[in-house]
Write a structure and sequence with these properties.
This protein has 485 residues and is an alpha+beta fold. Helices cover 31% and strands 24% of the residues.
Length: 485
């Protein structure tokens, strides 16, 4: 439990830690949490958020969102923006799973259509989308193609019949972030990644069949903007990232950054916060490699979507288009982006690190897809496999207060080891089936690690960010079928 006596309560859901808390802090730290969430938050979040506040060139605040918990260097759920000329870039502020993110696909099916076929559907998707540690995908690419794939992302997919025409427009950044350079990526990373497109991976990654849950929340007007028109409409959510490719990129550059800090006179409070000036050659090289990994993740999720569409088409004997299986949106987590923001009375270009956090741009922003620009960017926040997830939208207040950022999920409260001590995977699988959730997992240990009890209350996390005005609730979604790595 953190020491709240050092904090200033700004609102019922936000708390500030002043620069006097720790020597070297350049900006305050801001925590978004209800009192209940704050009391349950591990003290490591405070330690890490205030360590981030000491990094060179950070502006305004070091943020921790309502789902924040201990991470590598930055807290997971952490956000920090840096001056592009005087500030740094930190692989620990991005994470090993670069662009771990969320996709949400709608269907025109209702739960009554899917319920009798849920086992058949989940089993088929499980066979089409490899899940687990080190698995390889069925989509065969060559190493020579990796430059184009990681430069163009989902745009490359659209040009090669691996995406629908409107898919790129419904992905953050149009499905590819500019600035990729495959020459800045190691051969080992390319070798690890080339066979992993279309795979789910392990840990907290999942592919979930969900149903709109009006009992928990539904803004019918806003939901209609996303093609959500039924109370029990069936959706599909995908949570995964850049697999071994992104992990290797992070590992490679951490070594470079750790050895390079002395040359730039940078001293950090935690070696996991290794960083170098963004404007330096090494900083620019890492950024280019990280962008490759982010675009890799967009393509990975796109290929999984293709397999999901195939599975629904086979089970329901209709083509995916007639099932209205259009992409609502795809959001990034674990990324650093150059963005234009206003703060302290002026406009500036900043490098925003979002580590387990989601972009939450408000209405009218040019980077919000045209279909949603009048209401704001879709925000997808995934919960545990037992509790459900949410669709939200970004707000103008997020642009003003958090560099257009919000939470990304539930946030762990229990380690994976502790979760496995509390429940066995087979027992959890039976328990979920009794509650109407059919789950397939690569391993029973992996399933136990992701038990709902290991996570914060997703509804309280979402409510916190809604009350803070940082993101606005649209719809709650409950799981009925789940695939875990």
């Amino acid at each position: 439990m953190p020491d709240t006596s050092v904090m200033k309560q700004v609102s019922d859901v936000s708390w500030d830690i002043p620069v006097s808390y720790k020597p070297g802090m350049n900006v305050p730290a801001r925590i978004y949490a209800t009192k209940k969430l704050l009391d349950a938050m591990d003290s490591g979040v405070i330690e890490q958020a205030t360590n981030v506040a000491c990094l060179p060139g950070i502006v305004r605040y070091s943020y921790a969102m309502a789902d924040a918990h201990w991470g590598y260097g930055f807290p997971i759920g952490g956000v920090a923006a840096f001056d592009t000329e005087k500030g740094v870039i930190s692989p620990g502020g991005v994470g090993f799973d670069v662009n771990c993110g969320m996709r949400l696909i709608r269907t025109n099916l209702r739960f009554s259509d899917v319920k009798p076929k849920i086992k058949e559907l989940v089993d088929l998707i499980f066979s089409l989308v490899p899940a687990g540690v080190g698995v390889k995908g069925s989509q065969n690419f060559t190493q020579s193609q990796m430059g184009d794939i990681t430069s163009l992302g989902v745009r490359w997919c659209a040009e090669n019949d691996l995406a629908w025409d409107d898919d790129p427009a419904h992905v953050e950044e149009g499905g590819f972030i500019k600035g990729a350079d495959i020459s800045k990526v190691s051969r080992q990373a390319i070798s690890r990644g080339v066979s992993q497109f279309g795979t789910l991976g392990s840990g907290n990654h999942y592919l979930e069949i969900q149903v709109v849950d009006p009992a928990r929340y539904l803004d019918r007007g806003l939901a209609g903007e996303f093609g959500i028109i039924y109370d029990d409409q069936v959706m599909v959510m995908i949570h995964c990232g850049s697999r071994g490719f992104g992990h290797q990129v992070c590992s490679d550059y951490l070594r470079t950054f750790e050895s390079g800090m002395k040359r730039f006179g940078i001293d950090v409070r935690d070696r996991d916060l290794a960083c170098l000036p963004f404007a330096s050659r090494e900083g620019q090289d890492y950024y280019s490699a990280m962008v490759c990994a982010a675009n890799f993740a967009f393509v990975n999720r796109q290929i999984i979507v293709n397999k999901v569409r195939e599975a629904f088409s086979r089970v329901f004997r209709k083509d995916a288009e007639s099932l209205d299986m259009h992409l609502i949106y795809d959001v990034c987590h674990n990324v650093a982006k150059v963005e234009n923001h206003s703060y302290d009375g002026s406009k500036a270009k900043v490098l925003v690190h979002r580590k387990g956090a989601t972009r939450s741009f408000g209405p009218g922003h040019p980077d919000v897809p045209a279909a949603y620009r009048s209401i704001g960017q879709p925000v997808i926040i995934g919960g545990s496999m037992e509790t459900g997830s949410y669709l939200l939208i970004g707000t103008q207040k997020a642009m003003e207060d958090t560099f257009g950022s919000t939470a990304h999920g539930s946030g762990r409260t229990m380690s994976r080891t502790a979760a496995k001590r509390e429940v066995r995977g087979a027992e959890l699988q039976r328990r979920m089936l009794d509650r109407g959730i059919y789950v397939k997992a690569a391993t029973m240990d992996g399933l136990a690690e992701e038990a709902g009890m290991a996570y914060k209350d997703i509804s309280e996390v979402v409510e916190t960010m809604d009350r803070a005005g940082i993101s606005k609730k649209v719809a709650a979604l409950r799981p009925v079928g789940n695939i875990k790595g």
